[in-house]
Structure formats: structure tokens, C-alpha cells
Inverse folding.
């Protein structure tokens, strides 16, 4: 009996050792798998941190690129304006030159007739006229007549001199303006080349930035950050707003205002962007470089680059109303400037990471976004 019990105990011990050995092996395997998963999680977390850091660096670089584009575009726009002014001046000078040439021919013809009349009349010796004992009345008439002719000739000569002087001045001005035109055209070529280089640099930065926003979650996070950015700007603008009596707001302008630029509505107020995020304004597709005009008169209270919206301008219209213009190529007005209704304030662009040119336009009342279509016809 004792031998049997010993054998059974030995078998049971061996079985338990095998079971323990199997459990230990399985535990080690699971522990190894857990460590592997933890390593992967850590690696992904580090990758996410690195991606976020890279994104912030790229956004900073994008800001620099788009600010450089804005500077170059502003110079190009200024040069275009100067070229247009010189073209108008040259056209006016040409018209005046043609008028003066016609006037000169007329004056020369008149003076020629006067000189011919004087020649035919001959030289008159007034002493001889007196010795010939002509009547005083006749002599007085003759003297008056000759004095009139002399005055007329002198007036014609002076008028012709004045015309010739003005013609010379116009020709000198034309030469000067032509030189300015040539110089400006050369500057425009340099500026346009610089603008193209800056746009190419921006595109490279944008391509890298898009790679860090490859998932819907990252895009949604980016939109939420952008909304927070514009919220801060609106709060800043509200603090800067002043109740100026001359600014009457736009509360009575329902359906009467013009849109700030001509274009197609690509996203309307209140339509979804991503997740719970909706459009707080209207997105207008328009050609790059096209003029953006103020929908109403007011004062510029913000003009700078803003994350997600690029070059942004905010105008205070009074009575709690403000308008916001985003994604501009360049801003043509600065904070503190007073703006008239319809005045050009910026140019359509793609700033803020946009791939297509357009204008983002908001109207806000006491900080709350309202549908721009309610005010713009």
C-alpha cells in the first residue's frame, strides 16, 4: 500500500511540475507580448509627440512663407498701381500735346497773316504823316490802327512762345515718365520672380504639413485649434472696438451690402466642416490677386497672420458689428486706419494653408457670428 501511494504521489508531483512549467512558459509569453505592445504604444506616443512638434514647426514656417508672400504681393500691387498712374499721366500728356500742336499751328497761321499785312502796309514814318498836314482825326485813327496791329502781333507772339514752352515742358515730362515706367517694369519683373519663389517655398512647406494631417482626427484637432485662434482674435477685437458716433454699424443694411469680392460660394454659413465643427462664415472661391473691398465703412482693428486663416483683417463698423476677411494674399491696410465703404483693403489669396485661392468672410454682432448672406445681396 505504501509503495502504491508513493508511486501515485510521484506521478502527481511530476504532473504538477509539468503544469507549473507550462503556466510559467505561457506567463512569460504573455509578459513578452505585453512588453512588445507597451513598446509599440510608447513608440506611437513618441511618434505623435514628434508629429505634433513637426506640425508646429511647419506652421511657424508656413507663417513666415505667407508673410513673405504678402510683402512681395504688396510690392507687386503697389508697382501695378504706379504703372497704371503713369500710363494715365502719359495718356493725358499725349492728349495735351496734340491739343498744343493744333494750337501752335493756328497761332503760327494767325501770326503769319499779321506779318503779311504789316509788310503790305509798309513802314510808316509818323513824322512824315504829320508834315503832310493830314487831318488830326485821320492821323489819330491811323495811329490807333497801327497800335492795335502791333499789340495783336505781340499778343500772338507771346501766345506762341507760351505754347512752345508748354510743349517743351510736356516733352520733358514725357521723357521722365517713360524712364520711370521702364524702371517700374524692371522692378515688377524682379518682384514677380520673388513672389513666385516665395509661393514655391510655401507649397513645399504646405506639402509637408499635409503629411502630418493625414488622419481625420488630426484634421479635426487642427480645426478646433483654428476655431480657438479666431475666438481669441474676436475677443481681442471686441476689446478694441469703440462706440464711435460716426460709425453707424450695418444693422439696417439687410440685403443691401455688396459681397467683398466676386466669386462662387464654396462653403456657406452653418454648413458642416468636420465632426461638430461648422462654418462660422462664408467661403468664396475667387482668382488669386483679385481685390477685396470693405463691405461698409469702419476702422481696422486687426491685420495680421492667424493660424488656419492666414492673412486676416478685421474691421469695426460700430454698434457692435465687425467684418472679418481671411486667407488674403496680402493686406493693404493697417490697424487704426479708417476705411470707406467699397475701398480695396486686401487681395484674394491662399494663405492659412489653403490649396485653392479664395476669401473667408465673416460678419459678427457683439462677437457672435451671423450669416453674411443676410446682409449681402
Amino acid at each position: 500500500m505504501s509503495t502504491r501511494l508513493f508511486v501515485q504521489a510521484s506521478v502527481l508531483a511530476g504532473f504538477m511540475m509539468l503544469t507549473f512549467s507550462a503556466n510559467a512558459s505561457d506567463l512569460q509569453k504573455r509578459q513578452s507580448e505585453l512588453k512588445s505592445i507597451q513598446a509599440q504604444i510608447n513608440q506611437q506616443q513618441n511618434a505623435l509627440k514628434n508629429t505634433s512638434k513637426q506640425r508646429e514647426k511647419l506652421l511657424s514656417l508656413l507663417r513666415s512663407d505667407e508673410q513673405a508672400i504678402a510683402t512681395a504681393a504688396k510690392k507687386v500691387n503697389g508697382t501695378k498701381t504706379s504703372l497704371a498712374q503713369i500710363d494715365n499721366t502719359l495718356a493725358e500728356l499725349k492728349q495735351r500735346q496734340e491739343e498744343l500742336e493744333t494750337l501752335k499751328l493756328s497761332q503760327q497761321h494767325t501770326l503769319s497773316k499779321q506779318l503779311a499785312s504789316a509788310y503790305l502796309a509798309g513802314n510808316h514814318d509818323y513824322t512824315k504823316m504829320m508834315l503832310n498836314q493830314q487831318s488830326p482825326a485821320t492821323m489819330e485813327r491811323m495811329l490807333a490802327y497801327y497800335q492795335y496791329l502791333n499789340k495783336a502781333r505781340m499778343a500772338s507772339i507771346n501766345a506762341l512762345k507760351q505754347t512752345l514752352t508748354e510743349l517743351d515742358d510736356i516733352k520733358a515730362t514725357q521723357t521722365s515718365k517713360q524712364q520711370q515706367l521702364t524702371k517700374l517694369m524692371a522692378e515688377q519683373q524682379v518682384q514677380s520672380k520673388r513672389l513666385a519663389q516665395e509661393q514655391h517655398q510655401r507649397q513645399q512647406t504646405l506639402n509637408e504639413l499635409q503629411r502630418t494631417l493625414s488622419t481625420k482626427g488630426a484634421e479635426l484637432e487642427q480645426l478646433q485649434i483654428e476655431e480657438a485662434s479666431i475666438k481669441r482674435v474676436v475677443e481681442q477685437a471686441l476689446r478694441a472696438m469703440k462706440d464711435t458716433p460716426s460709425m453707424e454699424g450695418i444693422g439696417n443694411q439687410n440685403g443691401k451690402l455688396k459681397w467683398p469680392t466676386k466669386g462662387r460660394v464654396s462653403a456657406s454659413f452653418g454648413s458642416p466642416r468636420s465632426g461638430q465643427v461648422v462654418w462660422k462664415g462664408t467661403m468664396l472661391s475667387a482668382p488669386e490677386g483679385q481685390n477685396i473691398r470693405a463691405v461698409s465703412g469702419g476702422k481696422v482693428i486687426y491685420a495680421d497672420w492667424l493660424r488656419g486663416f492666414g492673412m486676416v483683417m478685421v474691421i469695426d463698423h460700430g454698434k457692435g458689428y465687425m467684418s472679418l476677411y481671411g486667407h488674403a494674399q496680402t493686406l493693404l491696410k493697417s490697424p487704426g486706419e479708417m476705411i470707406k465703404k467699397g475701398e480695396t483693403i486686401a487681395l484674394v489669396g491662399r494663405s492659412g494653408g489653403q490649396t485653392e485661392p479664395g476669401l473667408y468672410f465673416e460678419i459678427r454682432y457683439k462677437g457672435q457670428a451671423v450669416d453674411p448672406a443676410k446682409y449681402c445681396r
